[in-house]
Inverse folding.
């Protein structure tokens, strides 16, 4: 996968794309409120390409997500929303018999999908469930986590599967960054001594569900996290956008692992419809994007030209560092590039 578009300056990230898949938290909204420019940019994209929404958040149903997005001004139906509970229930169906009793650790969105999958929901380990499925909800606390631990102790993966909708360590909300489902899964892991199967990002099941549902041939995924969104898209063979409105910013980008590097870097979603700048590489490895140039010289990352656009400076720095093949901890990076 190319790190950056190297074709004509008039090309945009949407060129050739037949499906845009947008993550929600940190991309479309934070808490109840829309992120600036997200709604109008996605509505504009929807005029020429199919737009779907994909989320690891398991606390709400697809209908409630669609209602929230519609309230923000997007044109969305429940069928446009792909959730990690939907992917998790598909995964569940491959491991337990139809109609089996499932211990659900999570909120209404997860319960709804398990029931739609034809399974019986229980909240107690005493009911001898065939499997445990776990997803994030703000109301999940010690009592539910304890039930999961009781159900899993002394049982192997084959005897009683444990499926997690996702393992995001954090989730962006209106007041800041809060613990995500990964922290709750970790608590159960500590008590039960087991690890779950995972359906959501960065695993490919949720991407496969989305691409199959929309019949896409050339999708583009938009996310705000390298370790789940971009890694997952790369694993699924999908081009990706890292938008700097959520969790990961410049510091994380320049240090990104080779498996978690995006195709495009955007400041906000207006960039979807804007020409994406070409990247040129000099003989000595110096990278120029727009009028910004960055080079790796020995152990030093040098800014040869700051240019007039901080985003292009970041793009040039990422390309120069990534192209060098050097680990970030072995390089002296100017604070200007990641502050």
């Amino acid at each position: 996968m190319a790190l950056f578009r190297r074709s004509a300056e008039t090309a945009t990230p949407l060129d050739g794309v037949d499906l845009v898949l947008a993550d929600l938290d940190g991309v479309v909204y934070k808490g109840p409120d829309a992120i600036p420019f997200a709604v109008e940019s996605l509505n504009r994209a929807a005029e020429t390409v199919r737009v779907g929404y994909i989320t690891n958040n398991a606390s709400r149903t697809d209908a409630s997500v669609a209602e929230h997005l519609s309230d923000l001004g997007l044109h969305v139906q429940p069928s446009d929303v792909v959730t990690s509970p939907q992917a998790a229930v598909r995964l569940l169906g491959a491991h337990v018999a139809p109609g089996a009793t499932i211990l659900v650790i999570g909120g209404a969105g997860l319960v709804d999908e398990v029931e739609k999958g034809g399974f019986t929901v229980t909240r107690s380990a005493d009911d001898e469930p065939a499997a445990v499925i776990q997803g994030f909800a703000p109301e999940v606390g010690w009592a539910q986590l304890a039930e999961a631990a009781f159900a899993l102790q002394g049982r192997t993966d084959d005897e009683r599967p444990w499926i997690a909708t996702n393992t995001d360590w954090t989730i962006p909300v209106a007041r800041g960054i809060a613990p995500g489902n990964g922290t709750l899964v970790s608590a159960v892991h500590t008590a039960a001594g087991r690890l779950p199967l995972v359906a959501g990002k960065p695993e490919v099941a949720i991407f496969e569900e989305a691409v199959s549902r929309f019949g896409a041939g050339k999708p583009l995924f938009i996310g705000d996290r390298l370790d789940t969104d971009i890694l997952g898209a790369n694993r699924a063979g999908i081009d990706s956008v890292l938008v700097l409105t959520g969790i990961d910013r410049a510091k994380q980008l320049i240090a990104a692992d080779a498996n978690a590097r995006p195709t495009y870097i955007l400041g906000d979603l207006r960039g979807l419809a804007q020409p994406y700048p070409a990247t040129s590489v000099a003989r000595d490895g110096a990278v120029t994007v727009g009028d910004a140039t960055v080079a790796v010289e020995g152990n030093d990352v040098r800014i040869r030209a700051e240019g007039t656009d901080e985003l292009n400076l970041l793009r040039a720095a990422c390309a120069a560092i990534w192209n060098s093949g050097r680990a970030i901890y072995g390089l002296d990076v100017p604070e200007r590039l990641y502050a």
